[in-house]
Specification:
about 400 residues
Amino acid sequence: MSKHHTPLFRRDFTLVVIGQIISLFGNAILRFALPLYLLRQTGSPALFGAVGAAAFIPAVLCAPIGGVVADRVNKRNIMVLLDLSTAAFILAFSLLLDRVPLIPLMVSCLMLLYGVAGAYQPSVQASIPLLAEPDQLTSANAVINMVGTLSGLLGPVIGGVLFGAFGIRPILWVSIGCFFLSAVMELFIRIPHHPREAAGSVLSIVRRDLGESWRFVRRERPVFLSVMLVLALFNLVLSAALVVGIPVAVVQVLGMSDSRLGLTQGALGLGGLFGGVLTAFLGKRLPLRRGNFVLLAASLTSAGMGAALLPGVPPGLGWWGVTVMSFAVMVLSTMLVVVLSAAVQGQTPPELLGKVMAFIMAVSNCAAPLGQAVYGALFESCPAWAVLLGAAVAAAMTAVYSGRVFQELAAA
């Protein structure tokens, strides 16, 4: 059989997909329930944004380290260890809840959760080229992305029902079971691994490997730096606004229930799923050089959310507007992320892939904590519709700037 006709869903890739479904579902219900629990208990958007910002910092810091480890350690073992560690973290959180002050406990738990996620994803990203053929990279990335968004769809919907009916504790126990089951599933994955010589201390290895990835990006693919800048700006002005703004808009501005918030965040997952299916179907026919138009369209969704929150708009209609725009922004974002990931993977040597992907993730996400903290304060002091309309304008300006960057990446 020719290489072109080799099936994508072979044994090991399928096991990675199943393990991701289970693990990311547990992650999704936690990321929905824990911040909502904090917002319900405190009623403060500023505190909500500040805690989210603090929690995101370990994800940024751990991603480069995860990339170094992913290129030197068996990727399957990394996935198993991190899933088991997450199960242990959440078990400890459930035992300490109501026994220690909420805010320090929530910050600690979310920081650990995001830090593990930051270290985990480089192993998944770096394993894709080892389990799929070169001409299958776009489809393989789309599948992995669809897994994440499917979990993001089901997690908030189920989490909203559970949280509204039973509170936080059933969600904690379900997530513990998900992480443990995922770890067991991942034990049976076979990912090709060629150990590299590790000379020196752990810190020296990390410093040397990150320096190697930086030199590759700076000398061989300087366009990656521009891509990181565009993504960082977009995370700062739009993604952070939606992460903080959607729960504030639905729960506080519109006065909707936890299950309604779950449905809205489920729409984010449904949009990601649809975007992933669409990307997998279109494959290489998606024009990377036109990526700035996708970013511009995504910025318009923030304007749509702001319009849905204008004074005089009925709460029910406003909720539908926010929910539909949540779906639309994830369709667009997913398509862009999948195509960008495939482009980077196709232009990076396999021995550097984990580090380079982690480096890009870390730099592009570094603006998110600042954005979440700023938007938390803005949503507390300004009308939500004005904040979202302002975010739309800033995001549109970023999209206009990015046109040259996408053309350079497509030509590389």
